[in-house]
Design brief:
six-stranded parallel sheet, alpha/beta, globular, 13 strands, about 5% strand, three-stranded antiparallel sheet
């Protein structure tokens, strides 16, 4: 508590007798002649400041107490002789206070550095980059922004501390950051790792922002907001993306990097892509930065980051300093990722501008590591093909010397980019299988394209292909597809897929079985053989908000799945003890039930449109009161299909009850609304025991009731009104705090058999009719 007591009175800061000079004193800045803050401009213009002068600003008040034990420049950090900082033994970051309008100042140590007050020189927030450890932020922030020392009573967000570990209150809304959801597909997904705004320290009064990079591992020693009301109500009441107070001592980034290298794997570190937070403009008002547009269905409350002009000198200063610090922390294998324009339209389509941007990113890498190799996603080229014409693609790629960039052809199994870019105009590329969006459940694959695509890419004229890759948004589904893709890396030519899948079934279950092999042959030719442009993003009516205009189309014959279901059940006597067999039986039964939901939806829609109330009541009743509860029972019989497991895995990393509640809220939000207002509703839909009954089932019940009421009253059904009503149901699920079992219940074989006997005859008749 000693460190926490410093600077406890308003209007006081804490200075350190020692500390590193800020960015103003860095040689890169002196070389560029930059003036990061108005307070330093007079000295750089030739005027001399008196000893202790604040550069024309009011002199800082005397410190209230020493900054941390032994005058440590930053509580929780111990300076070393080399200038690096590390966590001090047994130390914690102390809470701090102050900010714009508080009369608070944190002076530089004498001998150099910017001399304006922290409120005038330091932005109250900063967006953090994935994989950057929390203990590295303070030193990096000091060097980037020029805040030479932070006292124990100082804070970067203008908030008032009131109790360690319980939160803070004050004028600034809160210190917010993304929270990882254990067991989930990475929210910080590979599309906009740097392109969307990564929640970090937020500006006053603003809620946290979430791009698809939101769950990168962020600061573990930040505070949760205390209760308040009005404009600054707790963020938990608005949208639950908050930083944890702490993380386990062994941060996962270090463990992952260490394990990768022990296996001979090459690590990839994130580099500076040009994005900066709005606060930089307060510290460096002369910097040339432009605000980008919103991402997806998130407005600028949650996105719209700023992009530095590639010719602004600060681009190289920030980019090089950042990467140097990251290399100090993790070492390097000389490969770095950066994605400036993923799912965002560049400011100009001028090829010269695009080339300058990529060249600036690459120069910032080589400024820190002359051997740098840039690994870039190629998703943007197929995602916005109207913008990324050949001239624009060539310009972006050729801003980097040939051979110093590797492009991930991210969706090559469906939309290969190398074919229309002359093999990425000479830059090496990796043929990647994306396969899954959002971690959705649902049997799916493009096995023919996967089996032949990499070999075709190698034979492409002047091919620059250097490898294969897997880049799913979520795993733990469709194991067969990933087994196939990984095996192809060891092959010289495409596989005989029917023979391969028979051997696969035998290996998977530990014994040969004719029925199981036959089931897999059916699955191979149907659900796993989507051809053409196929996107594995489950749009089944089961997992989408109900309407009268839902897509029920399939790329395969539904009867193949029903027959595979029958064959797997018949193999249960021999293979029932196999855990992988039981998993597959749940998954195939789930797929059959998903198809049945679509069939009943078609019957419901047809009955409503023909004003046939009895038929509507019959189809709706079977769906809501039997099929969905039976499906929920099935999923609840296997540990890997439990909502309770999903939620408990999120709660398990919390260090307090408050954190546990917050983490659970995030886990619920991700698989449902994904955003405060359903911004990308059902994007990460899952089929889990508990979720089917209490989320999807309740939505369907409301939908059927609304249709029945419409026919009874003779009034039209209004989708907009239904959407408003069902949103309350969806939001209620996110916040209801109901606890779900994390242990399976019931016997998978018995439940699947019961469903089969009840629904198979009619299902087979429907399936033989072909896709709806």
């Amino acid at each position: 508590m000693g460190a926490m007591a410093a600077g406890a009175q308003r209007g006081r800061g804490a200075a350190s007798p020692r500390g590193s000079p800020g960015l103003c004193a860095h040689p890169l800045l002196r070389q560029q002649g930059l003036s990061p803050c108005p307070a330093c401009a007079p000295r750089r213009a030739g005027s001399r400041a008196a000893p202790g002068d604040a550069g024309g600003l009011p002199r800082p008040r005397a410190p209230a107490a020493a900054a941390g034990a032994g005058g440590d420049p930053l509580p929780g950090l111990a300076a070393t002789s080399s200038g690096r900082s590390g966590p001090g033994p047994g130390s914690r970051r102390g809470p701090a206070r102050g900010g714009a309008g508080t009369g608070w100042a944190a002076p530089f140590p004498r001998g150099g550095g910017c001399s304006g007050t922290a409120a005038e020189r330091f932005a109250p927030w900063v967006e953090k980059v994935p994989l950057l450890p929390e203990r590295l932020y303070p030193e990096l922030l000091l060097r980037l922004v020029g805040l030479g020392t932070l006292g124990a009573g100082d804070r970067l967000d203008g908030a008032e501390w009131h109790q360690p570990g319980t939160g803070f209150r004050g004028a600034g809304g809160g210190l917010a950051a993304g929270v990882p959801v254990p067991g989930a597909e990475p929210v910080g997904d590979r599309h906009v790792l740097h392109g969307a705004s990564v929640p970090g320290l937020e500006p006053h009064g603003e809620p946290p922002r979430l791009g698809r990079a939101a769950a990168a591992s962020l600061a573990p020693q930040t505070a949760l907001p205390a209760g308040s009301s009005g404009a600054h109500e707790p963020l938990a009441k608005r949208w639950g993306i908050l930083a944890p107070n702490s993380l386990p001592p062994s941060l996962p980034q270090y463990r992952i990097v260490e394990r990768m290298r022990s296996l001979g794997m090459i690590t990839v570190l994130p580099a500076f892509a040009g994005h900066v937070p709005q606060g930089v403009l307060r510290v460096f008002p002369r910097v040339n930065a432009t605000r980008l547009g919103g991402w997806s269905h998130f407005d600028c409350t949650y996105s719209c980051t700023y992009l530095l002009d590639p010719e602004d000198p600060m681009f190289q200063v920030i980019g090089t300093l950042f990467l140097k610090e990251l290399i100090k922390e993790f070492g390097t294998d000389h490969v770095y990722s950066a994605d400036t324009f993923n799912e965002m339209t560049p400011l100009s389509s001028d090829p010269a501008y695009l080339s300058r941007v990529s060249n600036a990113v690459f120069r910032s890498m080589t400024g820190a590591d002359p051997e740098a190799l840039w690994l870039m996603q190629g998703w943007l080229f197929q995602h916005q093909p109207d913008f990324w014409q050949p001239a624009q693609v060539r310009a972006l790629l050729h801003g980097v010397p040939l051979g110093r960039m590797i492009v991930l052809d991210l969706f090559a199994e469906s939309k290969p980019v190398y074919q229309w870019t002359e093999s990425f105009y000479g830059q090496p590329f990796i043929w990647c299988m994306l396969h899954n969006f959002g971690g959705n459940h649902g049997l799916f694959g493009t096995v023919e394209a996967i089996n032949r695509g990499p070999f075709a890419a190698r034979r492409f004229p002047n091919s620059t292909m250097v490898g294969t890759g897997l880049v799913p948004e979520g795993i733990e589904q469709n194991d067969m597809v990933y087994e196939l893709m990984n095996e192809l890396g060891w092959r010289q030519e495409p596989l005989d897929l029917p023979s391969w899948v028979t051997r696969y079934a035998e290996r998977r279950y530990g014994a040969p079985n004719a029925a199981a092999a036959a089931a897999w042959q059916l699955l191979l030719r149907s659900v796993y053989n989507c051809t053409g442009v196929c996107v594995n993003h489950n749009h089944s009516p089961l997992v989408r908000r109900p309407s009268l205009r839902m897509d029920t189309g399939l790329w395969y014959n539904a009867s193949d799945v029903y027959e595979a279901w029958r064959l797997l059940l018949s193999a249960g006597a021999e293979l029932g003890a196999s855990p992988t067999f039981r998993y597959d039986l749940v998954d195939v039964t789930r797929q059959a039930a998903q198809q049945l939901v679509s069939d009943y939806y078609v019957s419901i829609r047809r009955a409503f449109q023909s004003h046939a109330l009895p038929e509507l009541l019959t189809a709706g009743g079977v769906l809501v009161y039997d099929l969905l509860p039976e499906l929920d029972n099935l999923l609840s019989s296997h540990s890997l299909f439990l909502l309770g497991r999903w939620l408990e895995s999120a709660r398990a990393v919390a260090t307090s009850d408050q954190e546990a509640e917050q983490y659970e809220l995030n886990a619920r939000n991700q698989v449902t609304l994904w955003g405060p207002n359903g911004n990308i509703l059902d994007y990460a839909n899952k089929q889990l025991g508990g979720l089917v009954l209490d989320y999807y089932g309740v939505r369907w019940s409301l939908f059927v009731s609304a249709l029945v009421e419409s026919l009874n009253s003779g009034s039209p059904f209004h989708q907009d009104q239904f959407n408003q009503a069902v949103f309350q149901v969806e939001r209620g699920f996110v916040y209801n705090k109901k606890r779900y079992p994390a242990v399976p219940a019931g016997d998978t074989l018995d439940i699947s058999r019961k469903l089969f006997l009840k629904y198979y005859p009619s299902a087979l008749r429907r399936g033989r009719a072909g896709p709806a």
